[in-house]
Design goal:
Blueprint lengths: L3 H20 L3 H13 L2 H17 L15 H60 L8 H6 L5 H11 L5
Helix pairs in contact: 2-4
Length: 168
């Protein structure tokens, strides 16, 4: 089990990494992320409901006054379509950045897992040597001997490709 100081150090390192990643974003990426974040909030939806209601209310002919966008509200349709296009682009831009960041985290996670695998293999080799030195029967266990062999990533990947369903 990790000590509290190790856990705290790891949390701090991850937080620093996140802060740096957020700080490296370009102005357009920050703007896109902000718009994408706010577009998914309830206040944004409420604002649109109020906006549409006012627009439609002002453009109904029942009041007998001139309207600037009569039914079927072509101007409103065009504005909403343009807004949808830009919102979609901002969301895609934000998702692309998030995807790149997730891929970088996956590479980091894989690297750490591979380092941990190497460390665990080395520890098992040392434990097996101690058991053999003290003539303990577990030191000659075939399963332990297999576990002390270095894991070949390319072999594991090849086996996964051969055995996992391809989704077709």
């Amino acid at each position: 089990m990790q000590s509290a100081s190790t856990t705290h150090r790891n949390i701090q390192a991850i937080c620093e990494m996140e802060k740096k990643a957020l700080g490296r974003r370009s102005l357009s990426a920050r703007l896109g992320d902000s718009i994408a974040t706010h577009a998914g909030r309830m206040w944004f939806i409420s604002l649109h409901i109020v906006w549409f209601a006012i627009w439609i209310g002002l453009n109904l002919k029942s009041r007998g006054t001139a309207v600037f966008d009569p039914f079927p509200f072509s101007l409103l349709t065009m504005i909403v379509s343009l807004e949808s296009i830009f919102l979609s682009l901002f969301i895609l831009m934000s998702q692309n950045r998030s995807g790149i960041q997730a891929e970088q985290r996956n590479h980091l996670d894989l690297q750490i897992n591979l380092l941990a695998e190497d460390e665990n293999t080395k520890m098992l080799q040392m434990l097996q040597a101690l058991c053999q030195h003290h003539k303990l029967p577990i030191g000659n266990d075939p399963e332990i001997k297999t576990m002390t062999e270095r894991t070949e990533v390319t072999e594991v990947l090849s086996e996964l490709r051969e055995n996992l369903p391809n989704g077709e």
